[in-house]
Amino acid sequence: MQKPEAFRLLFFMTTTPPENLIDIRQLTFGYGDRAVLDGISLTIPRGKVTALMGASGGGKTTILRLIGGQLQAGAGELLIDGQNANAFDQTAWYAARRRMGVLFQFGALFTDMTVFDNVAFPLREHTDLSEVLIRDIVLMKLGAVGLRGARDLMPSEVSGGMARRVALARAIALDPDLVMYDEPFAGLDPISLGTSARLIRELNDTMGLTSIIVSHDLDETFRIADKVVVLANGKIAAQGTPDEVRHSEDPLVHQFINALPDGPVHFHYPGPTVAEDFGAGLPAAAGAGEKA
Q1: How far apart are CA 147 and CA 109, in angstroms?
Q2: pTM for this one?
Q3: Residues near 68 by Cβ (< 8 Å), separated by ≥ 6?
Q4: pLDDT confidence of residue 146
Q5: pLDDT band at 12, cuts 50/70/90?
Q6: In the chain, which end has fewer C-beta atoms inside a 10 angstrom radius, N or C?
Q7: CA gap 41, 28 in Å, rounded
Q8: CA dist 141 to 53, 144, 166, 178, Å?
Q9: Considering only CA atoms, which of 175, 177, 179, 153 is closest in space to residue 166?
Q10: CB 92 within 8 A of CB 170
Q11: Where are the alpha helices (DSSP H) in the chain?
Q12: Helix, strand, coil % in the chain, rounded to nearest 5
């Protein structure tokens, strides 16, 4: 299968690749009247691990979907390898996605396929490689995540941590430029979590990848990330190195980093006062007007 012309133009015709693989400029996105991202600007440096963090509902996964073309921004620019993604047609998006790998939350493996076939799937779908060569590539990718010996198992026969590593092998099967991780540490025991974090860092450096991690795990994410972006209320509350973000004076960032139950993000959801709620069913003045 010949790669489409848009693929070559998008990723190989740039003589000097831009410093940032992804460049987001004044980007806005929302659902109806509810703004999720409100004019944000950020960059994803080439060859680095960038973490998107913040309270739930802050727009982290939305950014991944915008980069992958699942969603279309309402305004602003999204540049992928220097190309304006707003101008992509279907062919260009397919070409761009072939250079992206995604590790979905909890792996999202095909339950009726073996570990081997899960990793082989993108190779069979997007290339015309022989089965002999596909076998070698799959075994190399599984070997990179420590699971070459599990190739004949079904997803139901592996642990949650192993399933996440199989999904990672599948995400890197096509040797992508960009790998996006959506909550890669959720639900993992400490050993599996540490293993996954180490793999993300090592594979990024060994394969020359660019990685974006959406995560709520502060310790492991700060340990492996080169850059951290904290999102809040549709804006960027802080961005920089992990150390810079840790020492941010922004109240919301301080609350998030220190896991405080109350602060700019309130513990109580907005609603009526206690007096309004619990006094609503009582007489205005119990016993009022009664004579002694």
Answers
A1: 15
A2: 0.78
A3: 97, 100, 102, 180
A4: 86
A5: very low
A6: C
A7: 10
A8: 28, 5, 9, 16
A9: 153
A10: no
A11: 5-12, 60-67, 90-97, 115-126, 131-144, 160-171, 190-207, 218-224, 242-246, 251-257, 274-278
A12: 40, 20, 40
Q: Which residues of 173-193 are buried (b: 16+ CB within 10 A; e: fewer)?
A: bbebbbbbbbbbbeebeeebb
C-beta of residue 77 within 8 angstroms of C-beta of residue 7: no
Domains of the chain: 46-72+102-266 (3.40.50.300)
Cβ neighbours of residue 105 closer than 8 Å, sequence gap 6 or more: 182, 183, 184, 186
pLDDT, tens digit, 9 for 90 and up, residues 232-251: 888 888 889 999 888 888 88
The one-letter amino acid at 107 = G
- Report the C-alpha gap between 63 and 71 in whole angstroms: 9
Are 126 and 90 in contact by the 8 Å Cβ rule? The answer is no
Is the pLDDT at 280 greater than 90, yes or no?
no
In terms of average pLDDT, the best of 110-119, 184-193, 215-224 is 110-119
Length of the chain equals 292
Distance in angstroms (rounded) separating the CA atoms of residues 247 and 254: 8
